[in-house]
Specification:
The chain is an alpha/beta fold. Helix content is 43%, strand content 13%. Bound molecules: iron/sulfur cluster.
């Protein structure tokens, strides 16, 4: 089967196999791939709107013992420039976000051996006590953080997730997926969770009623076969649980990392978006990564399958540590979306639309 026939298969509503996805990855006809990605996007999200959320990324600690070779953000325990933000500092940052009509706190950090479950429970309760009535949502941690937290707190994964949820955690970002094959994980993050452990953490989160997103970081040491395996494993788990709200592909950012290497280009990003949109027939949304690709490429990705522009972020410390420094205000995000012929709409973490009000702040 050639790429045209595979795209037609997707348009006919037939699920693509791993072999089909390999055929698409061998195709360099971006126009053809865009046709497929855009058609599936329109089927799933027929309105010509592109959503985004006003939110803030807060990295509560950069201390981490895992030493992933692709990461330029972490500091090993004992480093002079390792930090843990105080509750007061985190609340101050959230207040700044609320002042700009923000609602989503994306709270992530390293695997810090000094922070146990009680630290997170107290923090989350403080956030909800102060900002719960303002509609602030905690989109927090990631499978690697939650699994480690359960381990050092000597509780089960399920108990850990239930306690975090009861303390105020609303949802979990799909960070740390990188590529869900052990070949890649052993090469770039051998001390981190395995592909099965990552997926099992998401399975448990979905089982206790906590929705999540899912990411894919491509372009480090992965092959197209690895990417296909990643997509197929994500799709299988979604068949089982239905708990993923959005898929977010982004390219490896090499600057300042031990792994080094090259930054994947725009062609590869747009191709990845289109193929992912066709492959993941059971995930409602695909998010553009303007933080790693810049606003221009993110804008073009709206015609390849993306229907969401993610968060305003306000600050970002992880990919910026790897040399990626794009920043956009609410007005710029709306302008970029409108210029591509779509209507920008604000949303919650769970993709409920919220009514527009004029926002004058910048991030
Ligand atoms: S990617 Fe996450 S787990 Fe790996 S070193 Fe960086 S902070 Fe630690």
């Amino acid at each position: 089967m050639d790429a045209g026939a595979v795209v037609q298969k997707a348009l006919d509503g037939v699920r693509l196999t791993a072999d089909d996805l390999l055929v698409l990855w061998s195709c360099n006809d971006l126009t053809l791939l865009a046709q497929g990605g855009d058609a599936i996007r329109r089927r799933k999200n027929p309105d010509r709107r592109v959503t985004y959320i006003i939110g803030r990324n807060i990295n509560y600690t950069n201390v981490c013992w895992v030493r992933c070779s692709f990461c330029a953000f972490y500091r090993v325990p004992g480093s002079h420039d390792g930090y843990v933000l105080s509750t007061e500092e985190i609340l101050r940052k959230i207040q700044e976000m609320v002042d700009l009509e923000g609602i989503e706190v994306l709270l992530q950090g390293g695997l810090n051996p000094r922070l146990r479950i009680e630290w997170f429970e107290e923090l989350f309760r403080s956030v909800k006590d102060v900002f719960g009535t303002r509609g602030v949502l905690l989109h927090a941690l990631s499978p690697a953080e939650v699994r480690y937290l359960a381990r050092i707190s000597r509780i089960s994964l399920e108990e850990c997730l239930v306690r975090l949820r009861e303390a105020g955690m609303d949802s979990m970002p799909g960070g740390g997926a990188e590529i869900l094959t052990d070949r890649v994980r052993n090469a770039i993050s051998p001390l981190k969770d395995t592909a099965s452990e990552w997926l099992d953490c998401m399975r448990t989160a979905h089982a206790v009623g906590m929705p999540t997103t899912v990411t894919m970081m491509y372009g480090s040491v992965d092959t197209v076969e690895d990417r296909v395996e990643h997509l197929v494993r994500v799709r299988s788990l979604q068949d089982e649980t239905g708990g993923f709200t959005a898929f977010i592909p982004w390219s490896y950012q090499p600057d300042g990392t031990e792994l080094g290497g090259h930054r994947a280009g725009a062609h590869e990003y747009l191709k990845t978006v289109a193929i992912s949109r066709m492959a993941l027939d059971n995930i409602p949304h695909v998010q553009a990564s303007w933080v790693t690709q810049g606003p221009r490429i993110a804008q073009i990705s709206l015609d390849y399958g993306c229907d969401d522009f993610g968060s305003t972020m306000m600050e970002e410390n992880v990919v910026s540590a790897a040399g990626c420094t794009f920043a956009l205000s609410v007005e710029e995000i709306e302008r970029v979306i409108r210029a591509a012929g779509y209507e920008p709409r604000r949303r919650t973490t769970q993709y409920h639309l919220i009514e527009r009000t004029e926002v004058g702040g910048s991030c």
